[in-house]
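> forwarded from #structure-qc
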């Protein structure tokens, strides 16, 4: 395997290729290579919810995985985007159970959603970056800034439907609506309500 490269999440943007998809953009931690990975709406929401520290009323699938891991005493050590075949990325959860290393195959989107919940690092390989990364040159730094402005922050994945009326509500009413949205598992609305409350603080 070629050398591992640490990555960080730069943002999520609406996928251009197909409706309901998102591009998860990873950036080389100490470098200029960008790795876009197409993921589904559910996984994008799971990633955004964790980044935004929204607590669902009931555990999502990736939260369940974390609880399962803790109860059965195994640790997830790192996420590795390990392979690229015919345009499809593959990933592994690198786990530890009683001192023994175990690799679990996963889709990158699920692996990253789980990794965020464990607070662990994301890696890929030089080979994958050489094959699939977009390289930002020194000359293209200005264009890169324009590109990054277009990449939606994770919060924007879970923005609610038009929310112009939220400004009419009192903080107490907004908190009431936020609790209701969480009970209904309407995370899009919950994020918008939380954002409105944060704007007032």
């Amino acid at each position: 395997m070629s050398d591992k490269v640490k990555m960080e999440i730069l943002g999520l943007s609406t996928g251009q290729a197909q409706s309901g998809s998102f591009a998860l953009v990873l950036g080389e931690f100490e470098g200029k290579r960008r790795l876009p990975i197409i993921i589904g709406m559910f996984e994008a929401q799971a990633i955004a919810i964790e980044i935004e520290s929204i607590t669902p009323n009931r555990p999502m699938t990736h939260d369940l995985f974390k609880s399962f891991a803790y109860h059965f005493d195994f640790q997830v050590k790192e996420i590795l985007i390990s392979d690229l075949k015919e345009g499809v990325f593959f990933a592994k959860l690198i786990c530890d159970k009683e001192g023994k290393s175990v690799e679990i195959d996963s889709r990158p989107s699920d692996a990253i959603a789980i990794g965020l919940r464990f607070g662990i690092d994301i890696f890929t390989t030089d080979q994958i970056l050489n094959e699939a990364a977009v390289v930002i040159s020194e000359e293209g730094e200005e264009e890169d800034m324009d590109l990054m402005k277009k990449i939606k922050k994770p919060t924007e994945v879970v923005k609610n439907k038009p929310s112009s009326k939220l400004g009419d509500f009192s903080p107490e009413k907004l908190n009431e609506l936020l609790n209701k949205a969480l009970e209904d598992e309407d995370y899009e609305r919950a994020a918008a309500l939380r954002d409105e409350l944060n704007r007032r603080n």
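QC bot note: Residues 91 and 99 are 22 Å apart (CA to CA). The chain has two domains: 4-157, 159-200.
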